[in-house]
Specification:
This protein is mainly beta. It has a single domain (about 30-380), classed as Beta Barrel (Porin). Helices cover about 10% and strands about 45% of the residues. The protein has an 18-stranded mixed beta sheet that branches. The chain has a two-stranded antiparallel sheet with strand order 10-11. It is elongated and about 80 Å long.
Length: about 425
Amino acid sequence: MTHGVRGTLAALAFAAVSLTALPASAQDDVPTEPRPERLYFNSGALLGSARMVGLGGAYVGIAEGAAGVSSNLSALAQRSSSLERDWDLGVTLSWLDLPFTGTKRRDVDNDGLADDSVDSRQLLGALMLQYKRFGIGFLWRNSRTGYCITLGCRGEGEKLRVSLTQSVLAGSVAFGQDDFILSLGIFSAQASFSELGDESWRYGDTGVAVDMLFRPHGRPYRIGVAVRPEVVAGWRRDDGQSPFIAGRQIYAAVVSPAVLSLGASWRLGEGAHRYNRLSPAARRQLQVEGDALPVPEEEPRDALAGRWLITAQVDLISSVSNAVSSRSFATATEPQFVGDTATFQPRLGAEWDTFPGLLRLRAGTWLEPSPFRDRNPRPHLTGGFELFVLRYWEDWAITASFDLASRYSNWGVSIGFWR
């Protein structure tokens, strides 16, 4: 009897030791580092001012105002033709996909499938300050998407938040009679993932952006170039932070592909040669500096500068290696590799001063390439109008735009200054 009890106790002790050792053994198999793949930063959605959207995003060769900073940083030093003071301040804000907008029938990333997100929001903002020939500014673009991590997905704690951000801090200077503008900026790509609480898994790194604009005085055209570097933003690990969120193993980095944009714009019609005319402030500055070139005579502020504007642009998007879509992470599916081939993104737009000083009509198109393998490019049709409203302190206008494509639509309205 005593021997049987001892045997039973020994067996129980062995079982207890074995059960205690199991978690430790299982714990040894848990990865302590992220997956080697990189999440692809896809910012293909056209976001910007109503004018930019209406022209199909072909704005590198226009580069006007704060709204133009997102396309060409040279907008920081391109002075409005009506500017009379030595300084100017500009701001713009665009918001795509309001929180109450449904996303189940929408395919934002052009992978041929309906988005799995339960909410989606994109913001773009720019701030610029000009003083004489110089300009400085800041550009910020953020895409935030929520994915369900439970079947019910009724509370914030049951959603996985993916936030992708691109920003640029830049300076710009104009040369000659504002004929050539050169801009340099620090380009940053950042990402964060969060579930519930204050903890977030963050990524980030920087590169150098270089933009140019050629706008010869007395000529009816402009040529623009914009260069965005490839940025591989590694995981910025906090002390003791696990490489898992919501049961999903995170990736080692986020990659933003390099983009080279080439664009041009032309004015057609009566007064087209005034397209690149100097502002009163620039003309006064040239007279004070005693520029060797003859200072052109001042023209009436409301003089026509061509009733037609044609603009074209092509974006060359570089390939990246070992990159996967954000869908792979958010839905815990097998990694889907994307962006392994270079792509072209052409844009074309036209603007017509239907009733000069009162109404402008716009139309455009652009071809959206897909970073997903074996997925065809998606054509977009864009357009809109700008209507003068009233003159009170400034000339105010209402602008509307649309961007339509298969499984995608974007309608916008804005209030701003008539130029």
